[in-house]
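Appendix B. Worked example

We walk through a single record from start to finish. Start with the input: the chain for Response regulator transcription factor, Actinocorallia libanotica, length 206.
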Amino acid sequence: MIRDGLATLLASAPDIEVVGQAGDGQEAVELCAELRPDVVVMDIRMPRLDGLAATERIAGAGSEEGTKVLILTTFDLDEYVYEALGAGASGFLLKDAPAGDLIHAVRVVASGEALLAPSVTRRLISDFARRRRHERPRSDVAQVLTPRELDVLRLISRGLSNAEIAGELFLSEQTVKSHVGNVLSKLGLRDRTQAVVFSYENGIAG
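Next comes the structure step. The output line below is what the pipeline stores for this chain.
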């Protein structure tokens, strides 16, 4: 009933098409391979294959580019959120959020424009990165990115949108968009969420 309700809500938006529903993680992986959706709204606790493993297969390293995963979560499941970030999730939505927030969240994740619920997500990402910082050495990012691209990455890590970054750096939005694309490409990152994680892991955020 909950899944049907979410599907009905999303389908009510004129710019969103619900192309499939899955009852467990394994079915979600199979449907994604067949349908190649832009965004998957993923629960964590599911039969056969849980949402974390499904997210890894759909959006993790080595997976097909394009499909992004929006995780439904609750405050008391922070550990799952850390694991979901590592698995390749692009965004989070609290299960008790207003219905309209789900539609907005799907649009945001699809566009890659900004993080969801910055007050929640930045805290989770910061703690996630702190826990994982020892797992890989600090990258010499200054040799990979230009000074301006590094400025853009720092502002991305604060959860700023392209328009906000443009205002901070006195640039056009199109120029910022180009810089963001360069940052993601040079660092081998999937989207802005991964860019924030990268920033925290490598001491760039600020």
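Two observations about the output. Residues 73 and 81 are 7 Å apart (CA to CA). The chain is about 55% helix and 5% strand.
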